[in-house]
Amino acid sequence: MVQVDDRVENITKIRMSLRVENNNKYVRGKGKVRESMEQFLKNEYKMKIVDNEYIIHVPYITIEELEKAVYDILNEFDNEADMRNCFVEVDAYCDELGLTW
Question: pTM, whole model, 2 decimals?
Answer without folding.
Answer: 0.82
